[in-house]
Every structure is written in C-alpha cells, then in structure tokens.
Design brief:
The chain is α/β, with parallel strands linked by helices. Helices cover 49% and strands 11% of the residues. It contains 50 helices and 31 strands. The strands form nine sheets. It has a six-stranded mixed sheet with strand order 21-24-25-1-26-27. It has a six-stranded mixed sheet with strand order 8-9-10-5-11-12, with helices on both faces. Strands 4-3-6-7 form a four-stranded antiparallel sheet, sandwiched between helices. A hairpin with a 3-residue loop joins strand 26 (974-979) and strand 27 (983-989). Helix 21 (549-575) runs antiparallel to helix 23 (619-632), helix 42 packs antiparallel against helix 45 and helix 43 (1171-1197) packs antiparallel against helix 44 (1207-1234). The radius of gyration is 36 Å and the shape is elongated. The two termini are 31 Å apart. InterPro entries: AAA+_ATPase (IPR003593), ABC2_TM (IPR013525), ABC_transporter-like_ATP-bd (IPR003439), ABC_transporter-like_CS (IPR017871), ABCG_PDR_1 (IPR034001), P-loop_NTPase (IPR027417), PDR_CDR_ABC (IPR010929). It is found in: Membrane. It is a multi-pass membrane protein. It comes from Leucosporidium creatinivorum.
C-alpha cells in the first residue's frame, strides 16, 4: 500500500515559527514579528473570556422516538395545506417533543486562552460550539448558563456578530476574487473609529490576512466552487478562515477548521489563533478531528472531551492525559494525546490498563466519574474565580463601549457595523464586480433579447391597419409582456440557491438580507434598462408601431417597469419558498394566473364577473392596457374591401356597407383606435400613466415581501435542521459496542499477507513512467506534473497525479507511459480499478445500501471463469457494509444540505465503500485525500481497512493524505513525495517505523528527531513553512541510487510480464468497457431515479400540482364561455395558456438534468454506465409522471372550458395533452443539454419557447406571417401542430352566436330587406345575418361556427389528426436532439485533450 504526500506552492503559508534541523531556511520570520502584521483591525475589545455551566442543548424529536423518514408524494401534497406548519417554520416557533443533544457541559476559558473540543464525529462537538457561540436558532432550547465575562447569553444576543460560529462548509460567491471577497467583508466590518480611507483600510487588512495565511498570490483569483474553477480546495478553506477573522469578534468557534489543509498549514493556522488570543485577548474555540501532538501542546490551553453528547472531561490540556490514565485507560507509546483522548470514547479503540477494574464504560458513567473527580472540583474553583474577576472588572463595559464605537452613526441596535444604506452600497459594488467578472451571463441575456426582438419583430412585421392587423399588433404587444414574464422566471433559482450564503453572512453580522434585495434592484436598474432599450428599439420599429419619440419612450418605460416588477415578483416567490421545487411550483401557479387574467386571451368585457377582480392584482394586465393605450390612441383602423359587409360584385356603395372592425359604424370604413380599444378590451388610453404608477406600486409591495421573507426565512431553523433520514420501513441495528471480529481480522490479514511468491506473482502490476500533465493558463501551458515514475505496488501521487495515472483527467495535456504488466491499459481499466475521489458526491436520495448495491450490480464482472450472479453481487455489497461498519446507517439516505443526511465521516466511508463494492480486480485501488474530514480513529480504521484489502485481494492501494499521524504513516508500505512543480523527491519503501524514508533524508542532512512525526518532518523538509529550502531535492532524487533502482524494477516488471502467457489484462481481444449490458444499466438507473423522485416529495408534487392548478384556474376563469366571437377567441387562447404549463416544468427538469450530469461527470462516467443509458433512464422516469400531470390538466379543463363533447374530440384533446407532457420532458432535457450553466437555462427557455408561440399561428395568423416565416419557419414550430390539432378539434364544431356588440351593422337601400340585399354576399360568406327580415340596421355575424375562426388562423378541422401526428414526430425528433446535444456539449468535451 502506497501513500503520496504533496505540498504545492499554493499550500504554503508565509509566516510560521517552526524551525527544522536541516536544511537552512531563507526569508524566515516568526509570526507577527513586524509591527502592524496582526490580521485584525486596531479597534475593538476582546478580553471577555467564556464560562459555561450545566449547558444542555435540546433538538427536535424524542429519545427512542420513531426514525425520521423520507417525505413522499402524499406527505408533500398534505404539506401544501399545512398552514400551521408553515407559520411555525416562518416564525421559527418551537413546539413538540424534544431530545437532549448534549447534556450538562461546564467549563471556563479565560480571556486570551484557546479551547480544544475533542470527540468522535456525531458526538456533539459542533452542537457545543454553536451553543457556546450563542448561535442557537437551530436548537429547540438551551438550558444552563453561558456568559462572556459578566455578559449573559441573553444580553450577548444584542451583539451577535461579536460571538460567531464558523461552520466547516466553504460558502462563498464563486465569481468574486479572493481580494474582493475579503474586501467586501472588511468594508462591512470597518469600525467607525477607523480614520483611514476605506480603500486604504481594506487594502491593508486584506494584505495582512493573505500574508498571515500564505496566499498573497491568490488576491485576484476567483474563489470558485465545486462547479466554478477557482482557487484550490485548501486555499478556499483558508479564504473562509480569513473571512471569519474580518469579523474581529471577541469569541470565534471554529468547527473542524483545518479540514482539507495539510498538516503544516493546519499547524500554522492554529498557531495564528493562539497568537491572536495571546495578543488581543480574544477567545478561540476549536474542534479538530485529527490533531497532532504539536498542535495539542503548542496551540491550546484547555480541552473538552465529548462522548456521545456527554462531557467526560473539561479542564487544562496538561491534565487530560493524566486524568484518563487514572480512570484506567492505557495510552500506547506512540499515540498522540488528542488521539488517546478521543480513543477513550470509542469502545472499539480504547484499552484498559492491566490490573485495573471498575473502569467506567458508558457515556453516562464516564460523565459521572468526571463530576466526582478532583479535576471537576478544580474546574469549579476556576469557574468561581473567573466569575468573581469578571464581576469586579470593567471588561464588559469596555467591550460594550468598543462595540458601540465601532458602529456607524445610523447602525442602531441592528447588530451590524454599518448602517443599512452603507450595506446596500457595498453590496451594489460587490454585485457589480460579479457582473464584470462574468460578462457571459449578461451577454446571454442581451443575445436573447436581441434574437427575440428581431425574430418576433420580423414575424409581426408591420401588419396592416385592418381588423386582423389590429389583432396582430395587440399580439405583438402581448408577446412583449409574455417574453419578460417567462424571462424573469430565471430569478427564482438564483434567489433560492443564494440562501446558504445569506444565512452565513447574516450570522456573521455582515449585512441584513434585505440589503441584498435593495442592492440587487439598484444594480438591476441600469442592467434592465440596457436590456429593455435594446429589446424595445428592435421590436418597436420592426412591428411598425407609432413612430413618435413620446410613444416609443413610453413603450420602453412600460416594458422596463414591467420587467422590474415581474423580477421582484419572482424573487418574492423564491424568498418565501423553502427549496427550488416549491419555488418553481408557485412560480408556475403565478404564471398561469397573470397570463390568464391579463386581458388578451379573454378580454375584460367577456370575463366572468366573479373572477374578473383577479386581473386587478396582475402586473401584465396593467402593462397590456398601458401598451395598447399608448399605441392605439393615435391609430386609425381601416377596413379593407374584404373587411366590409357586404362585399363583392354589386356592393360598392359605402353608405350601405359596414366595417367588421370592432367599434365600426354603418357607412364608415375607418375606426378610431381608441374606440376599438374601448369596445373590444374596455381599455382606455387615458389610464396609461395610472397603470405605470400601479406597476411601480406592485414593485414596492413585492420588495416588502422580499424583505419580510428574507428576514423570516434566511436563518437556521430548529424545524429544518439536518439529521439522518431513513427510508420508510427502515430497521436500524444498534451500533456494535466492540469489534468482535478484530482479532479474526488481524489474523486473516496475517494469513493473507503470507501469500507465497507464486501467488503474488500472478497479481498484475501497474507501472507509470515519466508522467507529465499540464493545463492551459494565460495562453500558455502550466506544468503540474513533471516526469513522475512509479510502480503500482509502489507509487502514486497527490490528487492531480492520482487523477492522471488513474485515467480520470479530462482537460489538459497528459504525457508518459502507463502499463499493466508491461502491456497497454485495457479498455475496461477505469471500471476494474477502484478510484475514491476527493469529493464525496452521491445520489442524495439513495440509501447507503442502495448506493453500494448500485455499484456492485453495474461494475462487478466475474472471477475469470464465470460471471457473478446478482445474488453474489448483492451479498458482496453486504460484506462491504459489514467491513466498513455501515450497518447502523445502511438504510439512511445520503441526503444533502436542504434535507439533512449523513455526516462527513459517514459520507467518506460510503465513498470508499462504493468503490470496494465494485470488487476491483484491475491491480490497483486509488483513493484521493482518504481521511479528510475523519477523526483520528476513523482515519486509522479506514487505512486499516485498506491494508486489509491489500492482504485479502492482492490490490495495490494508492492514496493521498493531508494530515497523517505517525502511526498512520507507518501503515503504508511505500511513499511518493512531490515537490512544488510536480517533481519527484522520493519514491520508494517506507520501511519499518518509516526508517527507510527517514534514513534517505537523514543521509542528506535532514535528520528526523526521534519524537517527531516522520510525515510532518518530510513535508517540512521538502517545502518548509515560512521559507524556502536551499537543497534541490528533486535533483538529489534523480541522481540517487534509489531512483535508478526504481527504473530497474520497472524494467524487471516489464521483462517478467513479457514472458507470461496471456492473462486477462493482456488479451488481444479487447474487454468490454462496461460490466453490465446497456439494458441492465437502464434498468438499475431507472430504479434509482424512481426511488429518488418518490422520496423527493416536493418534486413530483410540483409537477402534478402545477398542471392541476393550470387546468382548474384556466378552466374556471374561462368557465363555459358563451359561443360568441369573443367566447370562441377566449377558448382558443385558453388552449394557448394551458400549454404554458410546459415552461416552468421544463425549467425545473433542465436544471435537475444539469445536476444529474455533475454526478455522472464527477464519478460515474468511468466504466459504470453509458451516458446514453442515463438519458434513457431519465426519460423512462420522467415520462409517466409528466403524462399523468397533463392528463390531470385535461380532466381539470376540458369540460369547464365548454369544448365539443364528442368522443373523437375528447380523445384527440387528451392525446394532445399527452403529447404535450411528452414534449415537456424532451424539451426540458434538451434545455439542460444545450445550456452552459444552470443559470442560463431560463434565458434559453424564454428565447426558444416564445419563438415557438409566435410562430404557432395562434398570435399571428398564417395569412399575416411575412416571408420566410409564412413559407418555412412557422412550420418548424412544434406548437403550430399542437395548437392546430387542439384548436381545430375543440372549436370547429361549436356553433357561434354573435353578441349584440359583435354584430357588424349596415343599412340597406329603400325597398330592400337585409336578407334580400345581402343574399349574393351570404351565398359565399362564412357568417350569417341576425335579422334578415329587417329593413335597416342589419346585423351580420362574421362566422357561424368555430370552423371559421380556425380557418382564419390557418388551421383546418380536416387536418387535425395529421397535425397531431406531426407533433408526435416533433416529440420523437426532440429525443434524438437530446442525445445529440448531450454528446456535443457534455460528453465530447470530457474526452478532448
């Protein structure tokens, strides 16, 4: 088994006190030796300290209560109506049963001291730190006393940002640089008493922080994230730590703060904290899972040891080891003190001293033992002494005065340093920096605006001033609103996804979440103005609207005002929604309402009285009236010859004709635009500016809702705090109290380790020689690996090297030779070699057992003679569960940040188990940063398990570790050490007690002290913290005899391999890249997807409820419309509005698809399943529920809309809805495939979907479409064929009876009746005369059945089934497009070097 260690230049800090016996250091300086180097402002007061007595923290649930299980569809549907529960979550009301999380904790930390909290993961370390930092919103209640000097916890709540908690998650704005991130924090935390200019202050403190953390080179580098490329993971962690120091708090609780840092950097950071406490009096509380002896001895004054929620020690670090030895536990000779203390809380690790009896075993017994000990008496005495001194000192008053002096004049009692307006201004600048950093997103918006305006303007190009032309103009104006209704939907994901960062910054006292809203709106004004002016300038003149400056700028301002208001509306929805699925659901509900009641689909005169009031709360309704009033106030509509009634031969006298345009009068061929507008829509041109004012009023209301929602929901909540979630029906076995199998396992390791040379000689050997890897940076290639050589049984590298030799790199240039037994790598190499990646990425709604079974079923092949059966694969997964001690959580969901789930340590074990379940047989098993996030005992267990694999399965284990202890380091057989620049400084045997590698460096002047950790010594030798070595270690290695011996060993492996008979890795016949067949992959992926979606209740609930709401609302709002001209038009446009259920559902699916491919790209693409199988499984999973959703929409709307009830019409309408559901799935997947990022999905959606609508002939009739849309492009819109089939079927057979106001009036010559005069015209007309026997004021209805309306649009009743069939073809073609687009945009780039 091989370990790799690597300290790159980016991992080094600049200032430290460590000194090495050899070699010499250059530019070495002690911590904060220079004046002004302390990375804190010269203001504030920190000398308070901390005392806590009998602290007990309660969480939700009850002891021995039922397990928390997944929220399925039924529960999610019921929760939609759980208004009391919503109120409880909204106001963080706490009720119900509780259980203690930690019990009866006491301790004291005087000012200037540091406290270390030790315990196994899940024991309550983070809970204690939160309670001590007064961050208790996520708990039901906290009993006991916590005081800071003489300041109680209740009083300290007024100064929350002075007592802060740092979680182990690194949450930042990824597109801000490191300097900008710290600059924002420093700007918001600048004390009012600071006399320097803000820019000077920020620059000075940023420099101090980056220097203290050894990363000045990252000043202008993006912080980045798991998706956005930026600084390294270790550097991102240091950005989080530096950001915490900007708070200048009196007390900071650091939760697992050194996770992801190498041992040298971690030690330096803890020394920084110790020095800050000593110099300023601030109190630092730290929990660490892998603390070295030097960290313990030099960085901490006091320690608390936790055992399953109980305090088993609290006192000075110098007393802890002696206390536990006195209790009866034996400390192994080379075990570090923090490891020993933690081991005493683990039944599987601790050992009693010989001859000692009555040693307490359980947490309760050990807690009671401590309270009866002399150490507890000493603790009480120290507590009393501290409280007495605090009461007699004026520290509390000095602290309060310093806090007040640090606040700006108008900050008040908010807990923030800066006033609200200063917060807004700082956030405006920060958000402007993000916009400048990421011009692509804004460019996508502008491109979408330009394309929409250009294409739609061309489609609506200058229609005539006729009846149909007036409708086209109204349609163009309605489209302008519709476009921004859907376009602004993209605000929803951003609001929901930004919540974790807002929670963090609010807790740290940076800003009020409401300031983010105001800042965003301020920045939106110029951005939205640019977008809408570009959009307006193109669309306005292409459509041929009134060419006056006043009307153009009025049009622009209406569009701009609507866009701002709609964006605020969707942000309000997002701010009040707990997650993205719920936000999309209510966004879809809102979309259906505001489009239905806008007044275009169903004009105001036709709207039902009981429902028409709803339009008064719709922004698009006011915007549409203002746009129409602005345009038609100066228009005069002209009846063409064919629009006059009657017309044709013999009808030439206008005195006996009428105009079919609404509002026309007998004997006139023109209609005033304002009259047409008032008659048809009940809109008045005089209400333009009133409506604009109302729109801005709505913007104000939405802003208030955002501010209130942000204040109430952006916080940790006791009702939404995490924890394990189990599948329904789960049975959780109790955790083992002892490892009964340990002795057997050790014996088995020994037995397996004594394999004969003949046996091990048959194990394939992986070799790599002269490996190089470079990435493009700034137009040139940066070399990250340089000439690395090693043997599979003896070598590897850190994460970059591991990714490279394991064939997992998809970018950059790779060079070198990779061989298995001297032969090229087989095609199934990736599948048959386990690779444990650094990030623990899993399907969140799978259980631990299901994740292991999935890996076993799709990756295991056979033992050479036969394939494993399904039962054998599943049995092996159970063995892995037992091996990694995952039994108690086998039926627990992996989870995510929204719902809770496994701990970091449990995820790490699962990640390892997923690879073990694949039964790797490809000679090597790779694991990157194996023990990050684990405590020392868990890390030791993991490496012990890996060691067991080498013995039982003959695999070479290659892994990297950040902070190896001495005992851990000695478990490895070989080590590869890389210097900055990716150059080898050692690759060879570790030796007994690490003697071989220690001697190698000792012979070259770098002697290792007998008590030192060999791993830390080697790291400090090659790349010492605080300076540079004068020794060129890579050159020494290249010239060494050990390096030459490594080359000879590789040659011997190749020579030996060439003499072997062909083995499975060297067969000329290529092995399949995947163990399972394509349809087996589809089957298992589909099962996983179905399980995930049934457990994610809000996801299916959003789909079903959106379609039901669309159907019910549109159906009842247009309930049984009378068969008039307006009624037929309303029914037709109701069909169009019903189809708008597609965009929100497609948006949700597109974003979800992108996150699904993140899992595929990160971990599951290497030989587990084909990407085609993944897409197929998504289709098979999504289609049934989407078809059900649109079936429900059909049932909720068909009868209420009053369509023809014949069997054929009903069947075709249902089939049309079914195909719309089918298209929604394929369209959503296509959006996900072509969108570069999740944020781009809504912009591409609005572009494409609106084009589909305007080309459908429903808004612009076929006869009015200009070339080439008339002859070609409109036929490419899938909605043209959907609307053609549905409108033809639903409307054609309905008899039409015009309302009195819809009749076209004309007079007849004397002696004629209406019927006799118009008989020639009526013989060819589609309409009818309402009063054929009258002799004056004749009334003509322009159509007698809905077929006339359908024909006017360009559809045909006789072609309804053809149209449905063509729409089916579009759905099938879209499936092919999904696969093609996915390959081009997501798969092909993975394999391009």
């Amino acid at each position: 088994m091989t370990v790799s260690s690597h300290t790159s230049a980016s991992d080094l800090t600049a200032l430290d006190e460590s000194a090495q016996p050899a070699p010499k250091l250059k530019n070495f300086k002690p911590i904060f030796a220079e004046p002004g180097s302390i990375p804190l402002p010269d203001h504030g007061y920190h000398e308070l300290g901390l005392v806590f007595e009998d602290v007990t923290v309660f969480g939700a649930g009850k002891v021995g209560g039922s397990l928390r299980t997944v929220e399925g569809l039924v529960v999610a549907l019921l929760k939609m109506w759980d208004f009391p529960g919503f109120i409880k979550r909204l106001f963080n009301l706490k009720s119900g049963s509780t259980r203690p999380l930690i019990s009866n904790f006491s301790g004291v930390v005087p000012a200037g001291e540091t406290l270390l909290v030790l315990g196994r993961p899940g024991s309550g370390c983070s809970t204690l730190l939160r309670a001590l930092a007064n961050t208790t919103d996520s708990f039901f209640k906290v009993d006991g006393n916590v005081s800071y000097g003489s300041i109680s916890s209740k009083e300290a709540s007024k100064h929350k940002s002075e007592f802060v908690f740092n979680s182990e998650d690194d949450t930042h704005t990824p597109l801000l640089s490191v300097g900008e991130t710290l600059g924002l924090a420093l700007t918001l935390k600048q004390p009012a008493a600071e006399l320097r200019k803000r820019s000077d202050y920020v620059q000075d403190l940023t420099g101090r922080l980056l220097t203290a953390f050894g990363m000045p080179h990252t000043l202008n580098t993006w912080v980045g994230s798991e998706v956005v490329r930026g600084v390294s993971g270790g550097e991102r962690k240091r950005v989080s730590l530096a950001e915490m120091l900007t708070t200048n708090a009196a007390l900071i609780a650091w939760d697992n703060c050194v996770r992801g840092l190498d041992s040298a950097v971690a030690l330096h950071f803890l020394k920084v904290l110790k020095e800050l406490s000593r110099s300023t009096g601030m109190t630092n509380l730290v929990t660490i899972y892998q603390a070295s002896q030097e960290m313990y001895d030099s960085c901490f004054d006091r320690v608390v040891v936790i055992y399953d929620g109980f305090m088993v020690f609290s006192g000075r670090t110098t007393d802890a080891e002696e206390y536990f030895v006195e209790m009866g536990w034996e400390k192994p000779a080379r075990q570090t003190t923090p490891d020993f203390l933690t081991a005493c809380t683990s039944p599987s690790e601790r050992r009693m001293r010989e001859g000692v009896t009555n040693v307490p075993q359980t947490p309760q017994e050990m807690a009671a033992y401590f309270r009866s000990s002399r150490y507890y008496v000493a603790l009480q005495e120290e507590t009393l002494r501290y409280k007495t001194e605090a009461a007699s000192s004026n520290n509390a008053e000095q602290f309060k005065r310093a806090v007040e002096a640090s606040k700006s004049r108008f900050a008040g009692n908010s807990g923030f340093k800066r006033d609200f307006f200063a917060q807004c201004w700082a956030l405006v600048r920060s958000k402007a920096q993000v916009e400048r950093t990421d011009p692509r997103t804004f460019a996508i918006r502008i491109i979408s605006n330009v394309l929409q305006a250009t294409l739609v303007g061309a489609i609506f190009y200058k229609p005539p001033n006729t009846a149909s032309g007036a409708f086209a103009v109204a349609g163009a104006l309605f489209f302008a609103i519709l476009y921004f209704v859907i376009f602004s939907f993209g605000e929803v994901p951003g609001v929901v996804n930004s919540r974790p960062l807002l929670i963090k910054h609010r807790t740290l006292g940076f800003y009020n979440p409401g300031a983010v809203t105001i800042a965003q709106m301020i920045l939106d004004v110029p951005l939205y103005a640019v977008q809408t002016i570009v959009f307006s300038a193109i669309l306005y003149f292409l459509v041929g609207l009134s060419p006056t400056a006043q009307q153009f700028f009025t049009f622009f301002f209406i569009i701009f005002s609507s866009y701002v208001s709609l964006a605020a509306m969707y942000r309000a929805i997002g701010s009040w929604s707990p997650n993205l699925s719920v936000a999309v659901r209510y966004g879809g509900f809102t979309l259906s309402v505001i489009l239905t009641v806008a007044g275009f689909a169903l004009p105001v005169p036709v709207q039902l009285g009981w429902a028409s009031w709803i339009r008064r709360i719709s922004v698009p309704a006011y915007a549409l009236e203002a746009l129409l009033g602005n345009e038609f106030r100066t228009r005069a509509l002209q009846c063409s010859a064919t629009d006059l009634v009657p017309n044709g031969p013999g009808y030439t006298d206008l005195a006996y004709q009428g105009c079919t345009i609404t509002g026309g009068i007998p004997g006139s061929s023109t209609v005033d635009g304002s009259l047409w507008l008032l008659t048809k829509y009940s809109y008045a041109s005089s209400r333009i500016w009133r409506n604009i004012g109302i729109i801005w009023g709505f913007t104000g209301v939405f802003t208030i809702l955002i501010l209130v929602g942000s204040s109430l929901l952006i916080r940790d909540s006791a009702l939404t705090s995490g924890g394990k979630i189990y599948k329904r029906g789960a049975q959780v076995p109790p955790p083992p109290s002892v490892k009964a199998q340990d002795a057997l396992d050790v014996q088995k390791e020994k037995t397996q380790g004594e394999k004969s040379t003949a046996e091990t000689s048959n194990i394939p050997t992986f070799t790599f020689r002269n490996v190089t890897y470079s990435v493009p940076v700034g137009g040139s290639d940066k070399l990250l690996l340089n000439g690395i050589t090693g043997i599979g049984r003896r070598g590897a590298g850190k994460t970059t090297l591991l990714d490279t030799v394991a064939q997992r790199k998809t970018t950059g240039k790779i060079g070198g030779e990779f061989l298995v037994d001297g032969a090229p790598l087989p095609s199934d190499f990736s599948r048959r070699t386990g690779f444990v990646q650094q990030g623990d990425i899993h399907e969140p709604f799978s259980t631990v057992r299901e994740a292991l079974q999935f890996s076993a079923l799709l990756r295991q092949t056979g033992n050479g003679s036969r394939d494993y059966t399904r039962e054998e694969k599943l049995a092996y997964a159970e063995e892995v569960i037992e091996l990694l001690e995952l039994g108690p959580i086998a039926d627990a969901l992996v989870g995510n940040a929204e719902v809770g789930g496994l701990s970091i340590e449990e995820r790490k074990r699962l990640t390892l188990g997923v690879e073990l379940a694949a039964r790797p047989d490809g000679s090597s098993f790779w694991t990157s940063v194996t023990t990050s996030g684990l405590d020392s005992q868990a890390a030791y267990d993991i490496i012990r398990f890996l060691k067991k694999i080498t013995a039982t399965q003959g695999l070479a284990i290659l892994c990297t570790i950040h902070q190896p202890s001495g005992d851990l380091f000695e478990l490895f057989d070989d080590v590869v050490l890389l210097a900055p620049g990716g150059r080898t400084v050692y690759a060879g045997s570790t030796g007994p007690s690490a003697a071989t590698v220690v001697n190698y460096f000792g012979e070259r002047g770098a002697l290792c002290p007998p008590t030192a950790n060999p791993a830390e010594h080697i790291l400090a030798t090659v790349a010492p913290v605080g300076g540079q070595t004068e020794v060129d270690w890579p050159s020494l290695w290249n010239e060494s005899g050990e390096a030459r011996e490594m080359e000879r060993e590789i040659e011997r492996v190749s020579m030996r391999s060439s003499g072997k008979e062909a083995i499975k890795h060297g067969e000329p016949t290529p092995s399949p890249a995947f163990a399972a067949s394509f349809w087996e992959q589809v089957k298992e992926l589909t099962k996983r997807n179905v399980r995930a979606q049934t457990r994610d209740g809000p996801y299916w609930t959003s789909k079903l409820s959106t379609c039901v709401f669309f159907g019910l609302f549109v159906g009842f709002y247009n309930y049984q419309l009378a068969p008039t001209l307006a009624g037929i038009s309303g029914k037709a446009l109701a069909i169009l509005v019903l189809a708008q259920a597609c965009p929100p559902l497609a948006l949700d699916l597109g974003i979800r698809m992108q996150f699904t491919f993140i899992l595929y790209s990160a971990r599951e693409r290497a030989g587990i399943y084909r990407w085609q199988a993944l897409l197929t499984s998504i289709l098979l999973t999504e289609l049934p529920v989407m078809l059900l959703a649109f079936t429900l929409e059909f049932f909720c709307s068909f009868w209420t809309l009053g369509f023809d009830l014949s069997a054929e019409v009903g069947a075709l309408t249902w089939l049309g809805n079914i195909l719309l559901g089918f298209f929604t799935v394929t369209f959503g997947l296509l959006l996900g495939a072509v969108s570069p990022t999740p944020t781009a999905v809504p912009f591409i959606l609005s572009l494409v979907w609106n084009l589909f609508n305007v080309l459908s002939w429903a808004l612009v009739t076929y006869s009015l479409l200009p070339s080439p849309f008339h002859y070609f492009f409109s036929w490419l819109s899938p909605l043209r064929w959907l609307y053609g089939s549905l409108m033809s079927a639903d409307l054609s057979l309905i008899p039409v009876t015009c309302a009195e106001s819809e009749l076209t009036r004309f007079n007849v010559p004397a002696g004629e009746t209406c019927g006799s005069y118009a008989s020639a015209f009526l013989s060819t007309a589609a309409g009818y005369l309402a009063n054929p026997d009258d002799t004056s004021n004749c009334g003509y209805c322009t159509m007698s059945t809905g077929a006339g309306y359908v024909a006017n649009m360009g559809y045909s009743f006789d072609q309804k089934w053809r149209d449905w069939g063509i729409f089916l073809i579009f759905c099938v073609v879209t499936i092919g497009s999904v696969f093609l687009a996915t390959y081009i945009t997501r798969i092909r780039p993975l394999y391009k070097n």
